[in-house]
Amino acid sequence: EDRIERITGVRFPDIEIIEYNEGKRGFTGDYSDRLIVEFEELPSEKVYQTLDSLIESGKTGWRKNEDAYVFSATWGNGMPAPKGESEDEDRSFSISFKKGSKKATINSGMW
Length: 111
Prior knowledge:
Elements: H1 2-8, E1 15-21, E2 31-39, H2 45-57, E3 62-65, E4 68-75, E5 91-98, E6 103-110
Antiparallel strand pairs: 1-2, 2-6, 3-4, 4-5, 5-6
């Protein structure tokens, strides 16, 4: 949860991994894993207000499509890393979920 908050800038309720799909590993170490997670409780209205505020600022990796929230970031290879992440690693991270849902999808990988 702390790493998700550092990368996305938003604190979510605690999560539990309910499904883990390990992606293929390339010979250079590249991979892309997908996790289905469940929030222990529905995100509060304050979480959605924070997300909407970040999106409105235009200075974030967050976007909204109808009732779906999506965050994505890629760093390394000259692109700045989120706070607490290494710029020496070529990484990608995304999280998506619909408002009112307890489930979210996380994609995490190295490129």
